[in-house]
Amino acid sequence: MTDLTQMKNGQRGRIVWMIGKLGEQLRKFCGIQEDDILMVLRHMPDGSAIVRCNGKRYAMDADTAFKIKVNRLSA
What we know:
The protein is α+β, with helices and mostly antiparallel strands and 75 residues long. Helices cover 20% and strands 41% of the residues. The protein starts with a strand and ends with a strand.
């Protein structure tokens, strides 16, 4: 298990859990949940990322990306 800040461009992962209130907010406002599969479209050097999940794109700062824990599905 790792967090999104450690994922590279093109890697896919299954969301295992989301820390704190972030999980509630992502479920409520974005429809992102545990067990969803996401793909890192662009990983920035500062840890922020652009990801695709459930057919939508999301930009996340490094703090948010760190709070999303995933199991990698591809290298």
